[in-house]
Design brief:
The complex is a heterotrimer. Chain A is mainly α. In chain A, 80% of the residues lie in helices and 0% in strands. The N and C termini of chain A lie far apart (37 Å). Chain C is an all-alpha fold. Chain C has 3 domains: 45 residues, no CATH class; 39 residues; 39 residues. Chain C is elongated. Chains in contact: A-B, A-C, B-C. At the B-C interface, helix 1, helix 2, helix 3, helix 4 and helix 5 of B face helix 5, helix 6, helix 7 and helix 8 of C. Bound molecules: zinc ion. The site of zinc ion has 7 residues of chain C, from helix 3.
């Protein structure tokens, strides 16, 4: 019931944006900014690029306001745009060029965490190594499988929603998800045992 | 009717004048862009492979760029070309340092700061660079680098 | 979900329930059912343990903090795309006047197009002309070097622009 109320509220806000209410757009942005950026970050694994792509996503949302029709859940529509932007980015090969900055980023993360107070350096290093393994394993999934897993795990989206966002059938999403989790189980399951 | 016609002509002419004047390099780049892929391949075949790959990558990125952005960058390039050779080299060095010493996430913020810095006068720059927000995000050296870059950049 | 079936976790329907169980999205009564099954099915237990481990590992992947000026940058981009350029603003009344919907307008527009073309062709401006890509062109060796230098410096200048200008139209 709560979910239904939220959907209607977002769609209603978007309809107000269509009528020129920029306040409603700010509200939508405040609510969905983090999920969209986090999704893109985990897809691309580069925060700077994720933010740039997220700008593109919200710009597209804004530009589509005139033609917006609340036929699907707002989040589904939003993640369809976000998936499009991410998959296009990866397909265009812009992705590989960003990879070079990955190591720099993780180096920075490592020194920042090691320097902070709290758990011992060894614990921190172990955590970092694990985190790196997760990140790399997910990175190896095919882009569409990766998108499905990220929406399923972190956005808690239903199969039908993921299918609508990725513009494929529900059964295709399920088979993508199972294949992806199978890969992840084979590579990550040892970690928490 | 004659007035309208004159206005049309004036607008058409002004639209043309608004374009940046042509530079030799820009013409060479445009020629390269217009070539058929196999012709381009032949033209570039004598280049060292790494340099050639880099050039092809950059050309592809350039092709993908939005027209307005291309136009803006062409303008910047022309202004850059009008700088003294040693000033051009100095800026190249600063950009290298910027790319090599700052992580990607920080560079994004750095680029935003640069855009802002360039709109300010010396007094405004000093104030902005000394602001708490900037001090929290950038080290002394990084802020100095940004300041120097902003001052060395072409319009 | 058949406890006697050896390949039961491989069955899609079964795996879907198990997956939902590991994601904790099942209704309480379904949870009881699954747990009952897990007691008797080593294969499913193994599957669920592996999936839970993956789930837990993924939980440790925290997102990065978002730039504080993300919204400001977005609104600036929106404002930039909404606003007509200074030139367009300045000439808007004239353009409106010209688009007055008179009978002779198509003729006048055609004349304007033709004249623009004449001027465009007489003033050499490579960026303005945009002939079709793939046209036969010859490139001298020094021109390759010039193009390379242009691309190199354009790349540098691009890196100096704020990222929000990256895709602006
Ligand atoms: Zn079983």
């Amino acid at each position: 019931m709560i979910a239904v109320a939220t959907i209607e509220h977002d769609a209603e806000l978007m309809l107000r944006v269509r009528e020129g209410d920029s306040q409603s757009f700010a509200l939508l942005l405040a609510k969905h900014r983090a999920p969209v950026i986090h999704f893109l970050y985990r897809m691309i694994q580069n925060q700077a690029v994720a933010e740039e792509l997220a700008q593109e996503v919200f710009l597209r949302v804004y530009r589509s306001r005139a033609s917006y029709e609340p036929t699907a859940k707002f989040t589904t529509w939003l993640f369809r745009i976000a998936s499009h932007v991410a998959l296009n980015h990866i397909r265009d090969g812009k992705h590989e060029r960003n990879q070079e900055s990955l190591d720099q980023d993780s180096d920075e993360g490592m020194s920042r965490q090691v320097a902070s107070t709290g758990p011992t350096v060894e614990q921190q290093m172990l955590r970092e190594a694990r985190f790196e393994e997760i990140r790399r394993t997910i990175q190896l999934l095919p882009a569409k499988q990766r998108a499905a897993v990220l929406m399923h795990k972190y956005e808690e989206m239903e199969y039908a929603q993921i299918a609508a966002a990725l513009e494929c059938s529900e059964s295709a999403v399920k088979s993508s998800l199972f294949r992806a989790y199978e890969t992840l189980r084979a590579k990550l399951a040892h970690m928490n045992r | 009717m004659r007035i309208r016609l004159l206005l049309v002509l004036a607008l058409a002419a002004a639209d043309l004048w608004a374009q940046p004047p042509m530079a030799q390099q820009a013409r060479a780049l445009e020629k390269l862009r217009r070539m058929a892929p196999e012709e381009r391949e032949q033209a570039l075949q004598d280049m060292p492979p790494a340099r050639r790959r880099m050039m092809e990558q950059r050309l592809e990125r350039w092709n993908r760029m939005a027209p307005a952005r291309k136009q803006r960058l062409q303008g910047s390039l022309e202004n850059f070309r009008q700088m003294k050779p040693e000033d051009q080299e100095h800026l190249r060095g600063l950009v290298r340092k910027f790319n090599e010493t700052m992580p990607a996430g920080k560079r994004v913020e750095g680029r935003r700061a640069l855009t802002h810095l360039r709109k300010l006068d010396p007094e405004g720059r000093k104030k902005f660079l000394g602001s708490r927000r900037m001090k929290e995000r950038f080290s002394d050296g990084e802020r100095e680098l940004l300041d120097e870059m902003a001052q060395s950049m072409p319009d | 979900m058949n406890a006697k079936n050896n390949s039961c976790p491989m069955q899609n329907e079964n795996a879907e329930i198990l997956l939902s169980y590991c994601a904790r999205t099942l209704e309480p009564e379904q949870v009881i059912q699954v747990e009952k099954h897990l007691l008797g099915c080593a294969e499913c237990r193994e599957w669920a343990a592996g999936q839970q481990a993956v789930w837990a590992a993924m939980d440790t992947w925290e997102p990065e903090p978002i730039s504080a000026d993300f919204d400001a940058a977005l609104f600036a981009r929106i404002a930039a795309t909404e606003q007509p350029s200074a030139w367009e603003r300045w000439t808007a009344p004239v353009r409106q006047f010209l688009q007055g919907g008179f009978g002779w307008r198509p003729m006048l527009s055609a004349g304007a197009v033709a004249l623009t073309l004449v001027i465009a062709l007489s003033i050499e401006n490579p960026f303005r002309k945009e002939p079709p890509v793939g046209q036969s062109v010859k490139l001298e060796a020094h021109e390759i070097e010039q193009a390379e230098r242009a691309l190199e410096d354009l790349e540098m200048l691009r890196q100096l622009e704020a990222p929000e200008e990256e895709t602006s139209l």
